[in-house]
Amino acid sequence: MYGVDTMRVNRLLQAALCSLALIGVASPALALPEDRAQPIHISADSASMNEKTGVTVYSGRVEISQGTMKIRGDRVELYRSAGGEVDRIVSVGQPAEFEQQPKANDPITHAYGLRMEYRIGAQQVTISEQARVEQGQDTFTGERIVYNMDKAIVDAYSSQNGDQRVKMVIQPKSNGNGPSQ
User: Fold this and answer.
1) Is the pTM of this model over 0.85?
2) What are the structural domains, with CATH classification, of the chain?
């Protein structure tokens, strides 16, 4: 049986999924510290803010960036609680995309899916419909990937009809003397 570097898998998923938090709610240890201090830039073809419902919808080639963090989608919805805090973010696209450099010497983490949802209060991120996370040459795919940040639990699911199974490709670590075992 092959050993899986679970710490490396957790770090890969943690970097990708936790960084979806956007707007300064992500854990600072999971992204470049400079990112949180950067201004947030949002561009879209249109935007609509409903003060009564607390929902802001950005549509048409939406791009959100803060430092190295970038979210792209056809539509991004920000849901605010009665207190005005963002409590849920939903991004949809063909695919919705996310990228961020978790640490200065780490490769950029990329996440893709037709839908990404971050529930801030529950500290849970769900990437669904053709979910894929990449960092360097490591990949993790499934129909749906759910990450509970508080418990550091990652659940990945295949499609109900079984045509998309959960798959991981983890490259061997290099210790400077060639590939490791």
Assistant:
1) no
2) 6-169 (2.60.450.10)
